[in-house]
Amino acid sequence: MQANVNRVFMIGWEYPPHNSGGLGVACEGLTKALSDDQQLQIDFTLPYSPPEKIQHMNVHGCVDESWLDDENYPTQPPFSVYHQVPVAFEAVDLKMLDRYKLTALPQSILETKVEQYAGKVLETGASTDQDFDIIHAHDWMSFPAGIKLKQKTGKPLVTHIHSTEHDRTALGTGSPYITHTEYEGVRMSDRVIAVSGYTKHLLVEKYGADPAKIDVVHNGIDPLITPPKRGKHYFASKRPVVAFMGRLTLHKGVEYFLAVAKYVTRQIPDALFVVAGSGDMYHQLLIRTAQERLTASVLFSGFVRDRQKEILLNRADVFMMPSVSEPFGLVALEAAQRQIPVIISKNAGVSEVLKNSIALDFWDVEAMGKTVIKILSDRGYASNIVEGQLRDLNNLTWDRAAAKVSQVYRKAFLG
Amino acid sequence: MPQICFYLHLHQPYRLKPLSIFEVGKQKIDYFSAKKSDDNQEVFCKVAEKSYLPMLSLLLRLSKRHPQFKVAFSISGIFIEQAEKYSPQVMKLLRKLAAQTDQVELLAETYYHSLSSLFSPAEFRDQVELHRRVIWEKFERQPVFFRNTELIYSNDIAEQVAQMGYVGMLTEAVPRYLHGRKKTQVFASAAQNRLPLLLKHAELSDDIAFRFSDTNWQWYPLTVERYQEWIANYGAEELVNLFMDFETFGEHQWADTGIFDFFERWVQQFLSREENSFVLPTEAVMPYLEKTAQRENALTKIRAFFAGLGKPDAMKVHLNQKKLAALPVYDVPEPISWADVDRDLTAWTENDLQQDTIEKIYRLEEIIRGLGNQTLLDRWRRLQTSDHFYYMCTKWSADGDVHAYFSPYASPYEAYRNFSIALADLQETLI
Lengths: 415, 431
Known about the structure:
The complex is a heterodimer.
Chain A: E1 7-11, H1 22-36, E2 41-46, E3 58-61, H2 65-69, H3 99-104, H4 107-127, E4 134-138, H5 143-153, E5 157-161, H6 165-168, H7 176-188, E6 191-194, H8 197-207, E7 214-216, E8 241-245, H9 254-267, E9 272-276, H10 282-291, E10 298-302, H11 306-315, E11 318-321, H12 330-337, E12 342-345, E13 358-360, H13 365-377, H14 379-393, H15 398-414
Helix pairs in contact in A: 1-15, 4-5, 5-7, 9-13
Chain B: E1 3-10, H1 39-65, E2 71-75, H2 77-86, H3 88-98, E3 104-106, H4 116-119, H5 121-139, E4 145-147, H6 155-163, E5 168-172, H7 175-178, E6 187-189, E7 196-200, H8 202-209, H9 224-232, E8 239-245, E9 249-250, E10 253-254, H10 259-271, H11 281-284, H12 302-309, H13 321-324, E11 329-330, H14 346-349, H15 352-363, H16 365-371, H17 374-382, H18 386-390, H19 398-406, H20 412-430
Helix pairs in contact in B: 1-2, 1-3, 1-10, 2-3, 9-10, 15-20
């Protein structure tokens, strides 16, 4: 019997550029490092056929034929609902499940889709002659597939928890099906990877998972190829800019961002708050902004990616992530990398590694507001935070994350 | 048969182009026209083809054929700007019509079709003055009769208009303020300085403006004879005020509904009886003007009246308050308008999206007016155009459909979002 893990069968859901959140980004960073640094061979499944060639692994589009005929099946990536954002691949006939829209489907349909995906993954898994050592499944959408494949092949299963239903929904309003799928996934797996201590704690608390089975592997971040060109030359050069970036959902705490905007603009009337993202709270947040009389002080950019994301981060004077619950929060690392002082919720996994950012309670509007004002008015304070954050980042590479994941594989493989 | 006062409103807003937050503070954004495809030009040319050109031609023909046919126009300043840029032919026809001084009257209003009458007396006065000048400059006509944006009216607004020296005002006949009185008579405002008022006949106006092509309407298709019969219900001493959007003809009601033909035949039929007549708004209120020796003749002949007005600086027409005191009073403490079912302001000022942006616009007033920068002032005023706030309306009912029809946005939220970006940019230029 071989003693080493050489080949991983990985079950994914989204992958850049067709990602709606951090999951896709994490999958990209991790698989690249596993392939390049750990010399692992990876088979990676997606519920759509990616139009781009991905070099470092074999990607399998696992598309159920019924999806192609279904008119209700989302044919566009979620972010293209914001028509002002040019979406380069709009012309591509991409059949993709948006995991956020998916959650809103009736449970029976939801189950069917995920089961169908599991079926296709199983076929693909079988066609690889079962020549893999480990099954690695990312988040609940891939757990039924992971479990089935494990049962069929007897290979060890590693589940990777990037977020839980408890993070995504308000207290107790999560889907019982998703919650159960997460529970089963954790129960049935040989090892569990949690993206933070915060998430590990949730798994133990909410799903009664055995803490000994869970390893924490914080996400990494690719170093910037070119240093950030910080400055006021991008837009709104005469105003301090405070940025939020993320899905406009309850757990991201966007409402607290608006409350901070109200607090700060009382003292700094020209401060400009930018909400970048899309999501089901969009209309509600616009109304809230109007109710608080924050027009021209809070602007909504819609979903940003690539160049626009870069511009916003390069321009911002403060980055805020007031999440109610945040398993990790990758974008905080991107902000830190671009040398922005970051204010982060204590309920965010990333606060465990970005130790020099300012971690506060998401509900403490006054503390957050005061910190924003201090950062905007005290240059020394701001640059201390930035320097500290850059030191934090030195340890946060995907190579280090991949090395830890590789250890987890070993543990699972050796049993 | 009553007298008919027929009035049409010509207006096109400068719609905002889709704005990006990344342009804020770049100092060079034109909020209103995109380089590649200018929506405003597109809309204007489309409506010109469907409505302005055919209807203006028809009105010109009718006015030549029937010396008794009369029509009043209100033309917003930003309509005139766009007509000059996008469709000079529209201006040409308007000028020809405006030259028929005894058959065509041009009314006063705010240049920017704004809600300034509700939020800023100084701004209101300035925009009315700007409009008066453009009407003189383009048409050599001196407006003396006032119509406010969307026929928005209240006692307070009437007082401002009277103080500016206008001889009358159009507005909506709202049942809750009519108290059962006939709307087919001249009313006076309930204010210090009384102002004669003409109230819109909503039923007979909307039969054409809204119901004409409604196949579910019990009177569809409306015949000239039936419409004539309804009008004949009113006596010779009464005044039926038919007020509508100009685009009713050809845009809201397309040519294939037969609207042009209907109108032409109705005018012909109405005027076939010699005792029937059209009146211009100012004509209708002539009995309440102060007589002076040299204007004795002018007060009986509208052509002579308008000729006697001379250049804008020379405008001196006075109302006879004693005669006005005999008129029934239209007491409107809360603003009304001609819009939607409730004829109130809810189409523009009801929800938070609207209130937030309107408040912000007028909070900038002091500093922007203080700067005296004409470009900035013009931008700010274009953002005051009522249509921007109409697009943010979230009312959900029969009115919602009408709002959606006129909006360039996918939703009221998008209207607010985009408008906020323009406001943020404007704010940036003031720092």
